[in-house]
Amino acid sequence: DAGVTQSPTHLIKTRGQQVTLRCSPKSGHDTVSWYQQALGQGPQFIFQYYEEEERQRGNFPDRFSGHQFPNYSSELNVNALLLGDSALYLCASSLAGQETQYFGPGTRLLVL
Amino acid sequence: QKEVEQDPGPLSVPEGAIVSLNCTYSNSAFQYFMWYRQYSRKGPELLMYTYSSGNKEDGRFTAQVDKSSKYISLFIRDSQPSDSATYLCAIMRTGGGNKLTFGTGTQLKVEL
To answer: A70 and chain B: CB distance < 8 Å anywhere?
Structure first.
């Protein structure tokens, strides 16, 4: 049973560019949440997708957007990258109605 | 005031020691409590989940919740070098749409 998978594992971009990160949830899960983890900090909630719609959003600007596909996989898009967007981006999957979330290995983004 | 506070450490203990990791939270609306373990450059791994006051045990790990004091703890018995990691507490509100709020994480090193 595959756990949560994310791609790519590492990414280097320059300021102003756009990036797309991908996530496949754990088998049987239908809800995907995205988190940003800066170095030395706990993960911060970006948003959550269920039934292909954004259900909840954290305190992140509109430069951060997402999408969920019919197979429950998800993408996170970040436009107009800033140096401060450098972080580990984590995807977590869960089953609607259940509290436990399972995380993927993350995508490490470096913005130069 | 942060919604959840966690001592970042680092905490260094000898092998076999009992480790106590703690978090405090500010809002009684938080009703679900989790502990994640995160190895360096990896995604968080769910260790313990509880929603009631009292203790929950799983092998060498015990999660303790005191809702009256808004205080949660994770105890690790007979600590091993393989327990060296960052431990993150995470809390969730009732009806909060499954958004996790994390502490900053406590870095633990278990030495031989």
So the answer is: no
Q: What is the mean pLDDT of each run of 10 residues along chain A (112 residues)?
A: 91 98 96 96 96 94 97 98 98 91 97 98
- Interface test with chain B among A45, A54, A57, by most B beta carbons within 10 Å: A45
Residue A5 buriedness (CB in 10 A; 0-12 / 13-18 / 19+): middle
**A107 in reach of chain B (CB within 8 A):** no
Distances (CA, A) of A35 to A75, A76, A91, A106, B99: 12, 10, 6, 9, 10
- Residue-wise pLDDT for B2-44, tens only, equals 899 998 889 999 999 999 999 999 988 888 999 999 999 899 9
Of the partner residues A33, A103, A106, the one whose CB lies closest to the CB of residue B98: A33
pLDDT digits (tens, 9 = 90+) for A49-67: 999 999 999 999 999 999 9
Q: Which of B84, B73, B88 is nearest to B37 (CA)?
A: B88
A-chain CB neighbours of B100 within 8 Å are 33, 35, 43, 45, 92, 101
B105 contacts in A (CB within 8 Å)?
A: 40-42
Between CA A101 and CA B98 the distance in angstroms is 8
Average pLDDT, stretch B97-102?
Answer: 88
